[in-house]
Amino acid sequence: VRSFDISAPRVCDIVQSTTTNQPQPRLQRDDEVLARLQRELCILGEAVGQRRPLPPRRRRSHPPKATAVLKAWFRDNIDHPYATPEELQSLGTACNLSPKQVQDWISNRRNRKRRRD
Q1: 110 CB contacts (<8 Å, ≥6 apart)?
Q2: Comparing 7 with 17, which gets the higher pLDDT?
Q3: Would you give the DSSP letter of residue 54?
Q4: Other residues' Cβ atoms within 10 Å of the Cβ of residue 51
Q5: Element (H, E) at 4
């Protein structure tokens, strides 16, 4: 693993300054140095086959109409809140969700209800 010296200029900076006869670049601010190091680490990670870290995903809820339909089904089936495959398919069509999403929503709702009771 290669370590980076924060105070050292990059090789391409040295080459540019020596070929153009310009004075050495003055010291950069800490945040610029940090950003440069992060970019170089990403490039180095790609070179050894590692993927770049992904930004965190935002959690998205289902549309309000879908939630209302699912809540109504749950209220109507409170005694036995387990949907059949046919019910999952019809609820998914009504809510514009996949049957798996409907099944997960019902399962999460059962768990929340169990924790509250």
Answers
A1: 81
A2: 7
A3: P
A4: 8
A5: none
